[in-house]
Design goal:
- The protein contains 15 helices and 18 strands.
- By secondary structure, it is of the alpha/beta class.
- α9 links the parallel β13 and β14.
- α6 packs parallel to α7, α8 packs parallel to α9 and α9 packs across α11.
- The two termini are 44 Å apart.
- About 4% of the residues have low confidence.
- The protein binds zinc ion.
């Protein structure tokens, strides 16, 4: 009798340790994130948060739950390398009107929105997203894996200097930061010493890469698009601080002169880059750096640029027009030279704008095949994210691929997105299952 109970106990306890969290997805067509085509009728076995086998006819582990994937396509979770989870309102609203707890709740909602579109990983390129990342990782709220940058690092008058016209510089006002900047929105700094301090402050809080404003922006009032921001020495200071943490700097830049200065200072990633020329693209290639452009901007609705307005205000339009007009030329060059291209959308400014991130898939078909675009949004982005080296918070599994030892971040669609990228865009119709870290967030199978 005693032996009977012992055997019962052992079998029950081994079940609870090993089998209960196993999920076997059977007979599914798999795109693994790198191959040129689907692998048909494959089984994928997930245990806890990892994929532990991808093969034909995997034996069902005891107690595993089974998902029948017949006729469906399984791909790695998508990633967006340029989001601002905390920027769900205009910067002036956040600064001057919104309660910061309200702003945080909206950021949590934005994180959930991204996940439910199929984005299981995002790189947050500015704004206080450390707390959101922590809450997601702890399972308090649904959201993607987050690679946070922390506060924008901007020079006085730069793209991250969001003071209003009558607000004095901290230099003349006893070094009192605006309360919102003190919460980690933007560090407005000048000179190598201050750049180092801002960089190290972000790294201390958990930044996985740094975001530096290297040239004029669209929705900032005082910095023309052609302006170059930060001297070479200042940029090198940020690059050095990042490198000492084994990570890298990404910059906001449109104009070519600022892009070249940044690359020569050791910056690894140019975000936007819509006005770059052949010299810049050659230098990106030579330095094995990255470009993260936003091609959907050329077709984005007015509401995206001017939320709640019928028309884009002339001041904004004046800055926007050349950037949009440069996009095609920049992308033609990027394609021609075969540089590293990340998938990042910068789809921020209002809750619901996350959906615009999916329109980037459509917009890129002008230059790339669905396969190339899907690689950019999965395995290529994973390569970009891995530049964060020792600061990378997600090293238990591989990201952006479906293979043994990868994180169980995966999506199941009812048809093949390699044949038609609109399958990804029309997610409400086609996206049937979302799994992140082994946990299912949507299941219509
Ligand atoms: Zn941005």
């Amino acid at each position: 009798m005693k032996i009977f109970y012992l055997i019962l106990f052992l079998s029950v306890s081994s079940l609870s340790i090993h089998a209960q969290s196993a999920i076997l997805i059977k007979n599914i067509n798999v795109w693994d994130g790198t191959s040129t085509d689907l692998h048909t009728n494959i089984d994928v076995l997930i245990e806890d948060n990892l994929i532990i086998d991808v093969a034909k006819n995997i034996k069902t582990p005891k107690g595993a739950s089974i998902i029948d994937g017949s006729g469906k396509t399984l791909i790695p979770g998508l990633s967006d390398a340029h989001v601002h989870l905390a920027l769900t309102m205009g910067m002036s609203t956040i600064r001057n009107e919104a309660d910061w707890m309200y702003t945080a709740v909206r950021a949590a909602k934005s994180a959930e929105n991204f996940l439910m579109l199929g984005f299981t990983t995002v790189r947050d390129l500015g704004g206080p997203s450390f707390g959101i990342k922590k809450a997601v990782d702890e399972g308090l709220i649904p959201g993607p894996r987050i690679y946070p940058s922390g506060a924008f690092i901007s020079q006085t008058s730069g793209h991250g200097d969001s003071r209003n016209r009558n607000e004095p510089s901290t230099y003349w006002s006893g070094n009192q930061m605006h309360s919102i900047d003190a919460l980690g929105w933007s560090y407005v700094v000048d000179g190598e010493t201050e750049v180092l301090k801002a960089s190290r402050e972000n790294l201390r809080k958990g930044a996985t890469q740094l975001k530096v404003m290297a040239g004029g922006g669209i929705d900032s009032e005082f910095d023309p698009i052609h302006s170059i921001q930060f001297t070479s020495k200042e940029l090198e200071a940020a690059v050095q601080a990042a490198a000492d943490w084994d990570t890298y700097v990404a910059v906001h830049i449109y104009n070519p002169k600022g892009a070249i200065r940044a690359l020569e200072a050791g910056v690894k990633c140019l975000d936007h880059g819509h006005l770059i020329n052949e010299d810049v693209v050659k230098l990106i290639k030579e330095k094995d750096a990255w470009l993260v452009p936003q091609t959907f901007w050329t077709t984005a609705p007015t509401d995206f640029w001017a939320p709640g307005m019928d028309e884009i205000p002339p001041r904004l339009q004046k800055k926007l027009t050349p950037v949009l007009e440069g996009t095609v030329h920049a992308m033609n060059l990027a394609k021609e030279y075969g540089i590293n291209i990340g998938f990042g959308t910068d789809a921020y400014g209002s809750l619901g704008f996350e959906e615009l991130a999916l329109t980037e898939f459509t917009a890129r078909t002008r230059w790339f095949t669905p396969l190339e675009i899907l690689k950019q949004a999965t395995s290529e982005n994973a390569r970009l994210l891995s530049l964060s080296g020792e600061t990378n918070p997600y090293t238990e599994g591989t990201l952006g691929v479906i293979k043994k030892g990868a994180y169980a971040d995966l999506l199941i669609y009812d048809s093949n997105p390699l044949e038609n990228i609109e399958v990804i865009v029309n997610y409400e119709k086609h996206l049937k299952l979302i799994m992140k870290n082994g946990k299912i967030y949507k299941n219509e199978l």
